[in-house]
Design brief:
Elements lengths: L4 H26 L7 H20 L7 H12 L4 H4 L6 H8 L4 H11 L2 H6 L3 H20 L5 H14 L1 H13 L6 H7 L17 H12 L2 H21 L9 E5 L5 H12 L4 E3 L25 H6 L10 H17 L1 H5 L1 E10 L17 H21 L8 E6 L7 H12 L3 H15 L4 E6 L6 E5 L9 E2 L2 E3 L9 E4 L2 E16 L2 E11 L2 E6 L6 H11 L9 E7 L2 H10 L7 H4 L4 E6 L18 E2 L22 E5 L5 E7 L5 E6 L2 E2 L12
Parallel strand pairs: 1-2, 1-3, 3-4, 7-15
Antiparallel strand pairs: 5-6, 5-17, 6-10, 8-9, 9-13, 10-11, 11-12, 13-14, 14-16, 17-18, 18-19
Helix pairs in contact: 1-2, 1-8, 2-8, 5-6, 8-9, 10-16, 13-14, 16-18, 19-22
Length: 685
């Protein structure tokens, strides 16, 4: 049977219902049965839905690149920065035009309906029908009553989310782990990648960046593409080997990537096929029911307007309560039960990130939906339960992962040079770093704590308490990271002891999840955050809220889950040479200085898996006082977040190991490594 037969059957069942919705929506454009200002909203939204339907009807036509570009631009026009201020997608504009009673609700509804763009290109007729019916139901209520109550409209949206959770949320679980469930693989593997029209098959927003990236990849020699692919797949294989895990039991891998990189992704898929692993590709969430957030996870192309994403990141707050949260969790569990065998074969994610885009510093939108404190606590609790469920069904202690990143054309005129430099960075000899880093680890293993001091205007003054070794001959505190799962090479890391870890972490500017933080300052006591601020906004409460939402992930406090020292000075020198330090993903940035992850440890869900460094010593510092609570109550052990914050070398006065007897072992002084055996890291080329 056709592997997509389920979609054919689903579409056939929805055809009649869908045709009726389209006919009704056409009439809405002409009717005058609702009063202003709502009539304008309904007419413009109906026009958008008909625009999407027109694209669906022309899907089989052969189109030129120019026509595809015009069509793509038209679909995303009203959320682009130049139009967003006058779009119902903007909660502020919606409230201004429609009033505070319905403004947020209607902006939320419009944002959900915009998911139809993705569903058209995925040929999900049933999804389109469901959303069309939702719009018609809201419209009918305004026909029946001159102005229904807020509660009536909110209830329609609530029951839509609740009733269709078992469609959208359940399908989301399946598409993450079942290779036969995605149409993205077909685009990557079967398209003529030299014909850039393939980029418009996704339904994602496509800009010159994606076109240039694809053209650049097409021009690379075969050996370069193979090198990129081998680096990625070998990283996953090394991760299994180093973790003492059996990759032969695994047959499914997620590959998360951005449009334009398909030539390398195709080769990565071919590499995995040789060891019996197939890809499950899925699009970044486009609805509150399938994982839409401010940051995108999955496949995506250009972000039309990050402010739009940011304004709608908490839309679920309009309907979120315990009953809905528990229903969604139950739906996900039932979905996992149906794919239990496939989920157990999950090898882990392969994340190929692109960097170079302009950083994003959001503006405060007072009309955007904000979660109540009760909702924040509920979401955190449910996220923990959902993560636990995923770990259970996918056998987290048997999985691994690989993360790697490359620049995109937006990084500047020297893009080809920078790309070549990053390929070099990503493929540095891991054995060289293993040897250098072992000298550092030998010193760190003697320490009671580490002191990190900033210089100039950097206020960092941190004491990081270290695990006490019981058997130094066979045990070690730090992992010697040499480009297996976490590419490129170049760090040693540990889970610090929380008690005794204290002080100030400061960085003048850092990009976390593509959002900029200026003069970020965090205070720690016994390893947990007590205070935090930054200088992004004029009002201190806005700075705190920004951090609370995006770093704290709505937790009152977070522990230091990781302390690491980055050793990849090649990446640091490249950043200085090309002035791209602010463009690096955290994956490379964390290798260019000491970094501190707030949230879970690096060993989350795998603490009991025995891990060894290349010298044979077992890494024993994997838990802290919070993560160890997993043995009593999992809900108290994990935070479902891990955000690395790096201090660049040039903002550091000193990193020093302090022994129990008070003697010191300097590791770094004024931005250069001074520990014996690490002199090679100070090379400038």
């Amino acid at each position: 049977m056709n592997k997509q037969q389920w979609k054919i059957d689903e579409n056939q069942q929805a055809e009649e219902r869908h045709a009726l919705t389209v006919e009704r929506i056409r009439s809405i454009v002409e009717e005058k049965t609702t009063k202003e200002p709502y009539r304008t909203y309904f007419k413009s939204t109906a026009a958008f839905l008909l625009q999407v339907e027109a694209v669906r009807n022309r899907m089989a036509e052969e189109k030129s690149l120019e026509v595809l570009q015009e069509e793509n631009q038209a679909l995303y026009a009203d959320v682009l920065p130049g139009q967003y201020d006058r779009s119902f997608a903007n909660p502020a504009y919606a409230c201004e035009q429609l009033g505070d009673t319905f403004g947020q609700l209607f902006s939320f509804l419009y944002a959900e309906l915009r998911a139809e763009i993705a569903y058209v290109y995925e040929n999900r007729l049933f999804y389109l029908t469901i959303l069309n019916e939702l719009f018609i139901e809201v419209y009918n209520r305004f026909e029946e009553q001159e102005e229904p109550s807020y509660e009536e409209i909110r209830d329609i949206l609530y029951w839509f989310a609740s009733d269709y959770c078992d469609v959208f949320s359940a399908d989301r679980v399946v598409e993450r782990f079942d290779p036969d469930y995605s149409s993205l693989t077909e685009i990557v593997m079967e398209s003529d990648l030299t014909d850039l029209r393939y980029l418009y098959r996704y339904g994602e927003y496509i800009t010159d960046t994606e076109l240039q990236m694809a053209a650049f990849m097409n021009a690379l020699p075969e050996e370069m593409i193979q090198k990129i692919a081998d680096n990625c797949t070998n990283g996953m294989i090394r991760g299994y080997k180093n973790g003492g895990k059996d990759i032969s039991k695994k047959h499914v891998v997620n590959i998360l990537f951005q449009a334009g990189f398909e030539r390398a992704i195709r080769r990565i898929i071919e590499n995995f096929a040789k060891i019996g692993i197939r890809p499950a590709l899925y699009r970044a969430g486009v609805s509150i029911l399938n994982g839409k957030t401010a940051g995108r996870s999955g496949f995506f192309a250009a972000v039309p307007n990050p402010q739009y994403d940011y304004d709608h990141k908490d839309d679920i707050g309009l309907i979120y309560d315990k009953k809905f949260a528990e229903r969604k969790l139950e739906v996900e569990k039932n979905a996992f039960e149906k794919i239990r065998e496939i989920a157990a074969q999950y090898a882990g994610p392969v994340l190929v990130e692109l960097f170079g885009q302009e950083g994003f510093s959001p503006e405060k939108n007072a009309k955007a939906v904000a979660l109540s404190r009760k909702q924040e606590e509920l979401r955190s609790a449910m996220t923990a339960k959902s993560s636990q469920m995923v770990s259970e069904y996918t056998h987290a202690n048997e999985r691994s992962f690989t993360i790697v990143s490359y620049p995109c054309p937006q990084i500047g005129e020297k893009f080809p040079e920078i790309f070549a430099e990053v390929v070099k960075i990503n493929t540095l000899d891991p054995e060289v770093y293993e040897e250098i880093q072992q000298h550092m680890i030998d010193a760190l293993d003697q320490g009671e704590y580490v002191k990190i001091i900033g210089k100039g205007r950097n206020k960092t003054n941190l004491r990081v308490q270290l695990y006490k070794l019981n058997n130094p001959e066979k045990e070690t505190i730090f992992e010697n990271c040499s480009a297996d799962v976490n590419i490129p090479a170049g760090e040693v890391f540990t889970s610090p002891v929380l008690e005794g870890t204290e002080g100030t972490l400061f960085v003048s500017e850092v990009y976390l999840h593509q959002m900029v933080y200026k003069d970020l300052e965090i205070q720690f006591k016994d390893g947990c955050i007590t205070e935090y601020t930054c200088k992004n906004f004029a009002q201190e409460e806005d700075n705190k809220k920004y951090i609370f939402d995006n770093i704290m992930q709505h937790h009152e406090t977070l522990p230091i889950g990781e302390f690491a020292i980055g050793t990849n000075t090649t990446a640091y020198v490249a950043a200085e040479k090309y002035k791209i330090a602010d463009k690096y993903t955290i994956l490379i940035a964390e290798k260019t200085g000491p970094h501190f992850a707030v949230g879970d440890t690096c060993y989350t869900w795998s603490e009991d898996v025995r891990v060894y460094n290349p010298n044979g010593k077992e890494i024993v510092a994997k838990d802290n006082a919070i993560s160890i609570l997993r043995k009593e109550d999992l809900s108290k052990a994990y935070f479902q977040c891990h955000t690395d914050i790096t201090i660049p070398y040039n903002e550091l006065a000193e990193i020093c190991v302090l022994r129990a007897d008070g003697t010191r072992i300097p590791l770094l002084k004024d931005g250069e490594f001074v520990i014996a055996g690490a002199e090679g890291l100070n090379a400038k080329e």
